[in-house]
Amino acid sequence: MSTLFPFGWLAALGFVNSCPVCNKITKREQGFICFACSLDAPYTDMWLMRDNPLEQRFWGMVPIERAASLLWYKSQGQWKKVIHQFKYHSKHFLGEKFGYLMAAEFSKGGFFDGVDLIVPIPLHPLRRLQRQYNQSELLAHGISRYTGIPTNFKAVRRTANNPPQAQLHYNDRWRHTENIFDIPNPKALTGRHIVIVDDVFTSGSTLTSCAKAIYKACNGDVKISVATLAAAQYMLQEE
Ligand SMILES: [Zn+2]
Prior knowledge:
Radius of gyration: 18 Å
Distance between the termini: 53 Å
Number of helices: 10
Oligomer: single chain
CATH class of the largest domain: Alpha Beta
Number of domains: 2
Strand order of the largest sheet: 3-8-7-4
Structural class: alpha/beta
Bound molecules: zinc ion
């Protein structure tokens, strides 16, 4: 039956959509990820755990209220492929949907209770121009749409265009992310609870640097939580 009707037309009319993980056509009411892939999703459940492995990564570095990642970023599998495509290739349209999904799941653990502002990790303006979108901004949009919490895309500025993290060794990542953020208007953040949003947690150096910059600019009068789409499993289990 489906071969008789062009899929593009059906999708355009909103009757069907294609699951980004397995590419199978699904009914729209099933959500943007099909039922089978949802069951198979490498959810971390971190939003239900206090002192979870992600929160522990910030211990002794910078005070963090809560931290959670929606998915584990595993070394293989369809889910790894879809996260990679979102981060590096053209599947930016997934960003807002993933953000919405993050918010829906994290809210089950009260993650956004008392949060005032959603702040994505910024790209350097040159990098943003190259890529034409900031994947963390798209996630932040989706989170905001679900929670109703406002976003602020101008609260943090990236002042240095450090090399892509994936090309660096662990120690170099920390060196290259020191002092790369600037807070132009600390008043917009002082006294508030902010959730910093990033796409994939690897070494945590970028998020730590950003949180430190905010903390310093607000003289410590700020609460910071961290939300990421995915977390590299090997980074959190090595110790
Ligand atoms: Zn699927």
